[in-house]
Design a protein that fits this description.
By secondary structure, the chain is α+β, with helices and mostly antiparallel strands. It is built from four helices and ten strands, in the order ααββββαββαββββ. The two termini are 58 Å apart.
Length: 181
């Protein structure tokens, strides 16, 4: 058996000395391949099972530490709301020695139907149509011309209601600091 392994290793290194010349040799090679496949499948299943266990453990750790930080985060947010903060157009922040408390303004989420807006723009505002291989909406431009009232989008120029819904998002409160954020 060890001579066969030497021959196989020799062949795998790109040499042509290993060849099968009889049914018995073919049967032995076939059995080795089948045996290797069984072992490969066992090890692959083990690896995938272990990966699933590690993913579950990682999720458990994440939830555990979210729970541990929940009260402190709520208390920090309440404190943050009571102090004078540095304010920019997109966020407010408050510095401490170990890090910063930050509240970022988040953009609203727009939901709109492509074809309905294309149909509307064809008739009312063709400047917001872009012609490529297919016609699409110049969403960035049209969004600037929108007025939002009660979660609905209206074309500011005419007041016409568009097939656009707008969902405002809460500002995001972030605690920054340390090497791992």
């Amino acid at each position: 058996m060890s001579e066969q392994l030497v021959d196989i290793n020799y062949a795998l290194e790109g040499n042509s000395a290993y060849s099968i010349t009889t049914d018995a040799e073919a049967e032995a090679a076939l059995r080795r391949v089948l045996s290797n496949n069984v072992e490969r499948n066992r090890l692959m299943k083990l690896a995938l099972d272990m990966a699933a266990q590690y993913r579950a453990k990682a999720e458990s750790i994440e939830k555990e530490y979210q729970r541990k930080n929940e009260w402190d985060t709520l208390a920090l947010k309440t404190y943050f709301d009571s102090v004078e903060k540095h304010q920019t157009k997109t966020q407010q922040s408050y510095r401490l020695i170990s890090g910063r408390l930050v509240q970022k303004k988040r953009n609203p989420v727009y939901a709109w139907g492509e074809q309905e807006l294309i149909d509307w723009a064809h008739e009312n505002a063709p400047q917001y149509l872009k012609e490529t291989a297919k016609i699409t909406i110049d969403w960035a431009g049209l969004k600037k011309a929108l007025t939002v009232v009660d979660g609905r989008g209206y074309y500011a120029e005419t007041g016409e209601e568009l097939p656009v819904t707008v969902t405002e998002q809460e500002d995001e409160f972030i605690i920054e600091g340390g090497k791992n954020g």
